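Q: Hi! First time doing this. I have a protein sequence and I read that you can turn it into a structure. Is that right? Here it is:
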Amino acid sequence: MCFVLDGQNLGQVFISACQNTMKRILYIHHGGELGGAPLSLLFLLEQLDRDRYDPVLLFLADGAAVDVFRSKGYECHLALDINDFSQTELVWYGNSLLWQLPGKILSFASSVRATHNYLRRLKPDLVHLNSSTLAASAQASHEADIPVVWHIREPLARGYFGLRRKWLRQRIDRHADRVVSISDYDASQLLPSDRVRVIHNFVDFSVYSRNIDAKKARELYNLESIKNVVTMLGGCSKPKGTLQFVRALPFVLDRKPDTCFLIAGPNPLIMAKSSSDKFIRRLLLLDEYDHRVMQVAEEFIASDHLRLLGVRRDVPQLIAATDILVFPSTVPHFARPVIEASAMAKPVIASDIGGPRELVVSEQTGLLIPPDDPEQLAAAIISLLDDPELMTQMGEKGYRRATNKFDAKVNSGRTFAVYDELLMT
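A: Yes, that's right. Below is the predicted 3D structure, encoded as structure tokens:
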């Protein structure tokens, strides 16, 4: 029996054949420690159709994130000979980090060459860069004629004169076949292009479940006797506003003495250093922010009104134990903790800037407050603690908004559609 295929049917056969051919995706990540970017990547990979895509990961540093990906069965490689170049609101080579700039510039060409070596060895069909900091790897992938999806997860920093930001924006425009930005604000920092897609980070509602038992979660953290629990995720971090959060605590305790502030994430580095390390870092002002946080925090740690929990892998349980989630960032960074709390029907207080402004509908799903204003932050916390019914209403509205905008299957599917745009051409 013979079949005749017209143009349309032939195209369908071609698409079907492409879909049935396994495509190897190389994911390059700039760090090795746990944080929002690697966790977002992990959640993306958990939605990946493994019958269509074969993921392999390349990390530029070792750490807890690498361990997590390996424990999930992903093929992981270390590329310690590739350097990244950060020009973001979270990290840029100015002020106390200016000394790193010459080394970053000098290592750029060798990082391009090293990336070429990994590309030849791993033979990907597509490269997915998990940060704006991976300009060297973008150049190598472009030179190797491998499609590049460049994930922009951070707002770009202007710096002193804007020259490095201009350089990076041009690199993104030149070397990315598609750009995925996690927020409208981050996209606005880039050169306008029809290759830019805004796809928000997302939440797996089966993991960040509003049905986690809050009472049991409080028992897990020995919080049974505490009436009000206010949590910040992000550890000791200037861009995420840890100092503002801690400074708000005494104002809250004046009105709500039965309150405990929790901070999850990397603890101040000064807590884990030897005496000699502490002295050298203090001399170079590398730990200045950590010292400022601890000067305020020590009194409240001693009274058990503040707990530093360190890096946690049980964040859903922590959010379940929480009354209010706070994200007091000082830079306009997308706030994964906000969407995680919303998925669990918890009210949110966040800084009224950039990314957080896109995630919180003020007076509906939470409150937006001026950045760098501990008294305003405290007033917002007190106003919610004074009105449990309002907290519940905000949590419900936040949950409904999260299901509409931050669903894992929907948003990951949009990212995989970007892959298909490139792999089927």
